[in-house]
Amino acid sequence: SNFKDFFSESHTTLSKCIDRAANINEEQNIQELERDLSHISERSPASVECVFVTALCSINKRFLMMENAAKSAMDCLVDLTSREGDWFLEDMCLIAGVVIKLFALLANYDSDLMLHSAHKCLQAAYTQYKGLQELNLNFTSIILPEAIQTVQKEDPTVLSLIEELNQVIDSIPCKLSDLINQLQLHLRFVIMGMESPHENCRKIVANLRKGFESLVQSPDSADSLSPGQMLFMGFNGLFENLALGLNTLTAALASLNTPTSWRTVDQLKEAKKISALVFDASSRYILEDIFLVKRLQTMQELFNLCKTNATGFHGGLNSPLLPPDDDLLNRPVRVFTADYVSSMLLGVFSQTLAMTICLLLQKIGLNVTGEVEQRDIGAQNKVSLEELCRICVDGAVKRRQTSTTNLNQASNAMSYLENAYRRNELNRRLKQEMQRAEMIVQRLQLQLTAHYWLHEDVLSLIPPPPIIRSAFMMELRKKFTALATLQPKLSEAIEQQRSLILSSEQRLKWAAGANPALSEVMCAFETSVCINNEQLLLEQRMATMVGNMCNSVIQHEALRTRTSEALTNDTAFLQIVENWETSCYLSINMNTTLTPVEESLVKLIPPDPVLDLIWINKAETLISESVKTLLQQMEPQKALMFAAQDNMKVVIANVRAILAAHHRIMGDIRSLLKSMAKFEDSGLAGLVEYLTRYRAYTERLSAFIKSLLSVEDLSVDRAVLALQEIVTLQEETPGIYEDLLHFSMDGNGKSSNKRPPLIRQNSLCVSPKLGVPRDPQTGKAVQEKNAYAVSVWRRVRMKLEGRDPDPGGKCTVQEQVDWAINEATSLENLALLYEGWTPWV
User: Fold this and answer.
1) What residue spans define the domains of the chain?
2) pLDDT (tens digit per residue) in 556-578
3) Cβ 239 vs Cβ 170: under 8 Å
4) Main-chain phi, psi angles of 745, to 5 degrees
5) Burial of 162 (0-12, 13-18, 19+ CB in 10 A)
6) What does the record list as coiled-coil region(s) (predicted)?
């Protein structure tokens, strides 16, 4: 109901703005009125100048009255309004805008430096009022809706920056309100020229400024800005624009010097009384610190109100009874505006305008200084500016610079033109108010609708919001369908564009090759194409994101509304919850446990709702069908397995045949090795161990082949053991046959690739004196093998086999002949020959 009340109030405000705008007549032809006044000025320039000065004096008097009212309002300035209900700032901007437009009609004022400086001050002061007006307008139309929306949807970047802002504020040793009070006391001491005991507060503000500047510091790329950073930078940018305008105003005021005698002019004197402290350079820096703290206070209050509003929107136990309305949400910025006007701008515009009027009087021909000094000021100690204007007009009439008729014509034209300017400014302001009110109404309308849809179950008895759900969903579905239709067309258009671009690039390359001056055109074309492609890709991604979001919303709404599909899903969900409750109850109250087989059976066929005979029969049927299906699936696998076993037996038979051939080949070598093993001086160390290892290897291989051939049905375990045995045999086989080729090692275990040196051997013939060796048991003669003969026989055999001189490798006939020739012609071998043989002959 509170949201509906806010919506009704905003709608009423919008209606009032529309009625006021309708009551205002159409804009008068300002250009025509300006042209009439220009004609009068051509006939009688003095009459227009006199009327112009008189009009400015009257306007400044009204502006002074408004400033005095604002000064008297003090802390209530934020609530000060006119009889029509307009805020005080709107009326001040209206009058200041009329003055600026009237001043633009004055010609040849740039030649006067003082008058030109005064006009710059008026323009800068008006810019400040205009900036405050734009601050409130942009805050209401941009910052406030974005802050409310992001806080309501709990955007993490916004909440994070709000938390960082609170940390920066909490880092100072006092509250912001206490810091403002200390700065104001410090300002009083500075104004009075006394030593201030609150000087330390400016150091606190410096630390606060440093922390806040790091918080709102802009990143290198604008594309990387998060929603929180954009919100904070936009909000802070409104205040920064105001601060820049203040620097311009203070620079313009510094160039404006008021003569001492003119300070007794009533409007100058009254404006001086209420003038802001911005005229004093020493106090201006303290005011800047004060308004920096007030800026942070305004931002903190706004975000706290947005959090309260979001809590009320979502509902719950901690939600406020009355969420903040639009006036309360705008109040922090309005308070800042009122304080800014009161401390920075009061008296600036009126004082500058009074100074400008005096300069214009002097330009017309009135000696303002002389008139002020000749007058008996009296107890009031001031001279009326209106009286000076009247003296100026009378003097112009006496000097026949103008006439009463011309004055009346100029006065009427000036009055019409002033009213036209006023109505034009009022019309412009009402249009802004209408736009602002429309945005507020739209925001509250969306917020009311979202709140109603969020709490629809609770608010079912309340009348529905302005936006009807069914109509909204239908419109959303139409837009989504149209967008989904356009996406393929967009992809096709992109492909067509890409082909056209490739064709154009090819032609440009040809043209650039013929005319180098076209290289710049080609570079510009490529740059334009890149920018266009990036834009198209961005739009395509955005279209996809929007389409996905619309689809999600449509699906969500389809499930949450009472459609047949939604009701079915709700029923299924409630059944799941009920089953879960039953399972929890049974798990707590029953001690029996299920075996893994039973759990698998329950997962395979979930009971509905309990285990009974029907479920058992169903499980039996399903298991039987599953077993039958598995047996059918196993038949092809069995056939493949039997075929693999037959293939394995064929391969094993081939291996056995190869092994038999190997045994036949190794028969001669094995007998030779056995014979050589009997002689210790054969030079083959480790031969006995090798023969033992070789016999174990062959026996193991034969047994393995025999065991595989005897198997009828190979099981999985047997197959695994067979694979392990094959791996073991594969690892042993290279070592067996490599060791066989490396028995040319000498006694020291070193390779003897070279031929051993030639040495003289004893004859193998047995001397008759020594006798023939006999067997001691039988007495028969024993034939002894000559070791030298055995070694020669072995060398001959190795030569025939091509393994001389390297027993570890086998060489060809050509290689062996080359080696023999090299050995025969070797100087090392020839040096061992007997000199008497003269082998060199």
Assistant:
1) 45-219+226-303+331-402, 469-548, 614-743, 803-840
2) 777 777 767 777 888 888 888 98
3) no
4) -85, 140
5) buried
6) none
